[in-house]
């Protein structure tokens, strides 16, 4: 199970659920209002968007059926309830959790083609 603490929230992954816990601050309240934890069923994820923190902040976001399509860059990720922003200092944990989720999705896709 992986966990990554970002600038505006925490992502954890237990091979069943991706949990996004947002940090409640004035900035996040203005962007998204009051939010609780979000639980995404891992096998329903159709895309993982990862913008690396090369120059400035990066983000990780998840797409799944029924979600409004993403609009674009890091500024839009601030308002996306299914995204977490991270700094260059937090990058290593986010790369690790992204790889864990992508490997899970690849194994799931492979298992489905075997049936």
Provide a brief overview of the structure.
By secondary structure, this protein is of the alpha+beta class.
Essential attributes:
single chain, 115 residues, alpha+beta, PH-domain like, four-stranded antiparallel beta sheet, three-stranded antiparallel beta sheet, 7 strands, 32% helix
Please describe the topology of this protein.
Elements: E1 2-5, E2 9-13, E3 17-22, H1 26-32, E4 38-41, E5 47-51, E6 58-63, H2 74-79, E7 83-86, H3 91-114
Antiparallel strand pairs: 1-2, 2-3, 3-4, 5-6, 6-7
- Give the H and E element order: EEEHEEEHEH
Helix content: 25-40%
CATH fold annotation? PH-domain like
Radius of gyration: 14 Å
Rounded average pLDDT: 85
Low-confidence residue ranges = none
Overall SS class: alpha+beta
Tally of individual domains: 1
**Large-scale geometry:** globular
Question: What is the name of the CATH superfamily?
Answer: Pleckstrin-homology domain (PH domain)/Phosphotyrosine-binding domain (PTB)
Question: Got a strand count?
Answer: 7
Query: What's the number of helices?
Result: 3
Strand order of the largest sheet: 1-2-3-4
Using the coordinates above, name the CATH class. Mainly Beta
Describe it for me?
The protein has 115 residues and is α+β, with helices and mostly antiparallel strands. It has one domain: PH-domain like (Roll). The strands form 2 sheets. A 4-stranded antiparallel β-sheet has the order 1-2-3-4, covered by helices on one side. The protein has a 3-stranded antiparallel β-sheet with strand order 5-6-7. The longest helix has 24 residues. The protein is globular and about 40 Å long. It starts with a strand and ends with a helix. The model has no long low-confidence stretch (mean pLDDT 85).
